[in-house]
Specification:
The protein has 296 residues and is of the alpha+beta class. The chain has helices at residues 5-15, 21-31, 41-51, 55-59, 66-76, 86-99, 106-109, 117-130, 134-151, 184-198, 283-286; strands at residues 165-172, 175-182, 201-204, 211-215, 221-231, 234-248, 254-266. The protein contains 11 helices and 7 strands. Strands 1, 2, 3, 4, 5, 6 and 7 form a 7-stranded mixed sheet that branches. Helix 1 (5-15) crosses helix 3, helix 2 crosses helix 3 and helix 5 packs parallel to helix 6. The model is unreliable at 103-128 (pLDDT under 50).
Length: 296
């Protein structure tokens, strides 16, 4: 699958500048095996994206160093920690670019003659407003917090309710395995074990298309989240998770996860961005109510 327009824009932001253009030109020579030599940054970027169709593989090229990625992130997200491997920084850069994806504007939504401009404009306006509902803002904040802690092996039992429960399904090439457990200790151990067994890095889609909140029949907040699974330098599958959250009066009345339902599925050609609308296991939960007021 070709590198998306948003990722191409991110590469341009990263490499087409006075400091990093020499890296871009060297990278273009490298990926074309010195066949294509150019001093034009845009032409070089075109060569690179034509020869490498996986954004993760491209950012893992030796020309794009850990230092280069860190300095870029530091300028875009001040306060970025230095305690990250190159693989972590690659994922954070891609996540940053995904969050910059612009919403379809009304002026472009109706350009195609065979489209329905009125419906598209209404839907775009609705989505633009809905993503700012308090429940969605909280869901995105939780998703970022959880996967940051999980990927860096900092998820603790105190982050969960003591009686937390987990339903985990892993679909791999050699079959499907299901696991259920109860208690914070078992949930954390099971999640960490699955991540380490396969060497997964979880890259959540933290835009509105990938993380949303709902309220179930019992008044419990449900955070729905999906994303892509990665090993060292490539994307290997997708994940879909539903978290049931309740406030803990003994922890500053903060929201803590009590229920976990997760699907990890390997794929030969995973999508660059997995969305809730494409999910297989979250459609029923997506039909739950979406409150537009402040959460109690």
């Amino acid at each position: 699958m070709p590198i998306s327009e948003s990722h191409c824009a991110g590469l341009r932001d990263l490499l087409v500048n006075e400091k990093n253009t020499p890296v871009l030109l060297q990278l273009a020579k490298s990926v074309t095996k010195n066949v294509c030599s150019t001093d034009d940054p845009e032409e070089a970027l075109g060569y690179i994206t034509a020869h490498i169709e996986d954004i993760h593989k491209l950012l893992h090229k030796r020309h794009i160093t850990r230092d280069l990625l860190f300095k870029y992130l530091h300028t875009r997200l001040p306060g970025t920690s230095t305690d990250f491997t190159k693989a972590d920084l690659v994922m954070r850069v891609i996540r940053y670019w995904d969050r910059q994806r612009p919403l379809t504007s009304p002026s472009t939504a109706g350009e195609a003659e065979d489209s329905k401009p009125t419906t598209t404009i209404v839907d775009t306006y609705k989505d633009h407003n809905e993503q700012h509902y308090p429940i969605h803002l909280m869901a995105r904040k939780f998703g970022e917090w959880f996967f940051e802690k999980f990927n860096t092996n900092n998820l603790n039992t105190t982050d969960l309710w003591n009686d937390a429960v987990l339903q985990l399904r892993v679909i791999a090439d050699d079959g499907t395995s299901d696991l259920e457990c109860a208690s914070a200790d078992e949930v954390v151990n099971s999640l960490v074990s699955a991540k380490q067994q396969f060497g997964f890095y979880f890259n959540p889609n933290l835009s509105h298309s990938g993380v949303q909140g709902r309220i179930d029949a019992y008044g419990q907040v449900v955070v729905l989240c999906c994303g892509t699974l990665h090993t060292a330098d490539r994307s290997v599958g997708v994940f879909e998770c539903a978290f049931g959250l309740l406030r803990d009066p003994h922890a500053g009345n903060n929201w803590k996860p009590k229920k976990f339902k997760c699907l990890l599925r390997s794929e030969r050609t995973p999508p660059q961005l997995h969305t809730l609308s494409d999910s297989e296991t979250l459609q029923t939960a997506l039909a739950l109510p979406t409150p537009d007021d402040t959460l109690d």
